[in-house]
Amino acid sequence: MATSTGDDPHLERAYTLSGPADARDLYDEWAATYDADLTGEAQGYVAPSVTAVAVVAAAGTGGEILDAGCGTGLVGVELHRRGVGTIDGVDVSPGMLEQARATGAYRDLREADLTAALDLPDDRYDVVVCVGTLTHAHVGPSAVAEFVRVVRPGGYLVATVLDDAWEAGGYRAEVDRLCAGDVVEAVSIGLAPYRSGQHVECRLMVLRIR
Fold it and tell me: What was the pLDDT predicted at 1?
């Protein structure tokens, strides 16, 4: 794993987490300064805005969206700015959820461990969006199928996968498996800026659920 962190101690810890409890501790600790640390020029965390553009281009603004791994609400804010009205969020960290709640962008926010099954029925949402969570030491490729499960047929999963984890972390293989099984259609999977200040890129995938 060689993802540039710009010597940010929180990011360095984030890419070496030992499990959900460790993630909860880190993000609770980081919640108050997370936005300032990542959205400044040094890191240039543009993935939330880039992904919000992709969501609206694929699915419009009228559906119900689940922001999986919503963190402080950066993605929800970007979606809300673009006219999306119904956004729910889940995250492992109560501290991050508190920050997300303060944005006013979400209908509902709940704590959830994305390494386990979601406490949601099949076909619940029109879109699942996931930014910054499918990455080193966070949530593995098995989550992709779980996200697909809660999207209605014809809906979309729009997610980032850190580029240097795309193949090594098994995400590409899982997406290929779902495509081969006619579970999803890969509308697009391309390189996109992630943290532009550190020249870090991601795979931005737009999957249509069959």
Answer: 47
Contacts of 61 (CB under 8 A, 6+ apart): 82, 83, 84, 85
pLDDT > 90: what percent of the chain?
A: 99
Structure tokens, 96: 């991050």
Is residue 196 within 8 A of residue 46, CB to CB? The reply is: yes
CA–CA gap between residue 133 and residue 109 (Å, rounded): 17
Q: Counting every residue, how long is the chain?
A: 210
Per-residue pLDDT reduced to its tens digit, 29-57? 999 999 999 999 999 999 999 999 999 99
Cα–Cα dist 138/119, whole Å: 19
Domains contained in the chain, CATH given: 9-209 (3.40.50.150)
